[in-house]
Amino acid sequence: MAEGLLNQMPFVNPFSEPGTWLRGNTHAHSTRSDGEVSPEARFAGYREAGYDFLVLTDHDVTGAVEQFCTDGFLAIPGAELHPENPYGGDRYHILALNFLEPIDARAMHVREVLEAIQAGGGIAVMAHPYWSGHQLSDYEPLRGLYHGLEVFNYGASFLNGTANAELIWDAHLDRLGSTFGFAADDAHRADADVGGAWIMVRAEKRDIASVMTAIRRGAFYATQGPSVTALTGVRDGDRVRIEVRCTPAAAVRFKGRTFSGRWQGASDGGLLEHAVYECRGNEKYIRVEIIDALGHKAWTNPIYLSDILGS
Ligand SMILES: [Zn+2]
Ligand SMILES: [Zn+2]
Fold first, then answer.
1. Domain identity same for 160 and 292
2. pLDDT attached to residue 2
3. pLDDT, tens digit, 9 for 90 and up, residues 181-227
C-alpha cells in the first residue's frame, strides 16, 4: 500500500470487495498485564465464542501468540501502549495491532510511538476516547499517524458508561479528516467482557496478512450485534445516494457533518431491513448506523461525498 496521510484514505466499500467476512476483537487483556485469564484461555474464549480472530493487546507488553492459532482461528499479537500526552489531555491508550516490537512507550514521545508502530508493520488505533477524556486537540498534532479510534469500547460501559465516542468521531471526520471506527471489548474479566462489541472484516483470505490489509484499507464495520449486508454510495447526477441493507433494525441513522443527514425509524412498530438516503450536498461525509430493537448498534466507516463525486 502506498504510504500517505491516513486521514486522506479513499473510501473502500467492504461490501463490494471480494473475500470473506471475519469476526474479530481488536482489544483484549490477559495475565501478561491486568487481564484475569491467561493468554491461552483468552484466545480459547474468543474461539469458542465464534470469533475468527483476536488481537491480544496487553498493557505495555507484546509477545508471540502464534502458538494460539488453531483451526482457522487467527491469534494476532499486539499491545496497548501508554505514552504521555504533551497536548494537555490524559495519557494515551494506543492499540498496536499485529505489533511485536518491545518498545518502552512510556519513555517515548507519542509521535515516536505511532511511528514505531507503523515502522513495525502494525496498525495504531486510539482506544476509548471518551473514557480518556480526549478531545480533538489530543489528536490533531498526530493526524495521519493512526488508522482509527474506538467508536465503542464495551469494557468502558461497565466502568463509568463512557463506551460511546460517536461525538468525537464525528468531530474528527468533519474537522480533522477520515479515520476508521472500531468497536471492541477491551476484555479484562474471564467471560463477562467477551462478546459485547467487535468488527466484521472483509478479508481476501483467512490469514493475518489479509485481515491486516483489510483493516488498513477500512474494509470493515463495527458492531454490537446488527449486521450490515450491503452498502452502496453512488452518484446520481450531482448528488450522492447512499443505500444500506441490514438485519432487522428499529432505526437507521445516516450521519453527516454537524446537523446533516437523517435518522429513519421503522413505521408502525415494524423493523427496517433497507434504507436509502439522498444526500443534499451539505453532508461532507455520511456514516451509517444500524440500531436494532434492543438498542444495539452497528457503525459503518464514513463515505466522503468527494470520493464519489470526484471533487
Ligand atoms: Zn485502555
Ligand atoms: Zn485495554
1. no
2. 37
3. 999 999 999 999 999 999 999 999 999 999 999 999 999 999 999 99
State the residue range of the domain holding 25.
11-222
What is the distance in A from the centroid of ligand 2 to the CA of 295?
A: 24
pTM of the model: 0.96
CA of 28 to the centre of ligand 2 (A): 6
Q: What is the mean pLDDT of residues 230-237?
A: 92
Which ligand is nearest the CA of 155, by number?
2
**Domain identity same for 47 and 68:** yes
Residue 195 in domain? yes
**Domain harbouring 238, CATH code:** 2.60.40.10
CA dist 259 to 1, 109, 171, 255, 262, Å?
A: 35, 36, 12, 8, 9
Q: How far is the CA of 223 from the centre of ligand 1 (A)?
A: 19
Query: 12 C-alpha vs ligand 2 centroid, how far in Å?
Result: 28
Ligand closest to Cα of 90 equals 1
Measured CA to CA, the distance from residue 305 to residue 223 in angstroms comes to: 23
Please list all protein residues whose beta carbon sits less than 5 angstroms from ligand 1, which is an ion: 93, 127
Q: Where does a domain end: 188, 222, 256? A: 222
Residue 2 lies in a domain: no
Specify the DSSP element, H or E, that contains 220: strand 220-223
Provide the number of structural domains found in the chain.
2
Domain boundary among 178, 198, 222: 222
Give burial (CB, 10 Å; 0-12/13-18/19+) of 137. Answer: exposed
Residue 270: exposed, middle, or buried by beta-carbon count in 10 A (0-12, 13-18, 19+)? exposed
pLDDT in tens, 119-160: 999 999 999 999 999 999 999 999 999 999 999 999 999 999
d(CA 114, CA 95) in angstroms, rounded, equals 10
